[in-house]
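Hi R.,

Here's the chain you asked about this morning:
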Amino acid sequence: MKPYWDDTDPMARLTDRREVHPLVKTTFAAAQETVNFVVFRPEWLPVDCILTEVTLRPEQAPGRPGGMQAQEIGQTPWTEANPGSVRAVFRGKQRCLRLKQFLYDWAPPAASTAPLWNSPHLTPVPGQNAIAWLGTDYLQRPGGCIQLMRTQIEISVMEGEFSEDELGRLLVQLTPAAWESSRAVRGAAFHRLNYWVRYQLRGVQVPYGLWGYHHPRHYDQSQAVSLDELVAKPPLRLLLPVDSPYVFDSAVIIAGEQPFHHEIELIYRHQENMSDHLWMTAIDQNSELTLPIPPEPETHRAAVRQAQGLRNTTVWYAALSEQYGAWEAFWEEEKIRYAVWAGTTPFQDGDQFKTLVENLRVA
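And the predicted structure, written out as tokens:
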């Protein structure tokens, strides 16, 4: 039996209220059966806290039946996409926090701190094989985030107070809730799981990271392609990592109706945990959607943003933290513009990221 993500009708749209699946109360383990990401459960909770609720937002085709509001099915109002997620609530003595899990698949996860965007402070919390971040979230609440096995996990304090030690310990002590049931998800390529690619739906406009780039991903004009196919017949000049700790995950070609728009998007994963990403794109310099060179800085804080002499040209380099990342590089070469976004990881530093960029070679 094919996993449900391999059985997606890219033209399907949600138009009838009778087709709508409501939020479902569930367990972490049961939720794993119907989502496109690995579901995690806490191994540790603050002493006074207990799990009071786990809710599944089922994946559904994009769209809104007539008169239906996004909030009625637990979705956000800024898109008609209906991806799945799992939400849990933990309550203690006069305090409460929320934990949410999903596949972050509509753009690079902005500097690995997307839910903490423009937080006045950011605190890294090293775990065994991943880095969590703590700060102030988009609701102006104390919160944090981490990526584990490609799953985006976010926490937010809803009531009362939690210390950074408590929030950090919770995030770095998460474990898969149903290991065997997650086998298909763990073995699937990112673009096979990707909601926007599967439904041929344009992404939402969000920050990409520390350098400004504001075009949504044109996944409505994308086509998945194998690395062998891509190397055999690249639509434009293709750069690939050489002797890198990252291994290939998946790729798409995007060919838009905009004049000259040809783009390659590649995802690599760090071999130490097969989670921490290297997200690469190449775009024709004449495209209306091309990368800005030189780029403007985003408003989000960064340890460094500078022009760097690499690849016999100027590479625009940025790092949230030189030690932990995330790291970014924008540049132009042979009339093609390139960007590389590397998620935060304990397995490299800024110098190693720059070496990786320097060593990219034409396929």
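Residues 164-172 form the longest helix (9 residues).

Let me know if you need anything else.
M.
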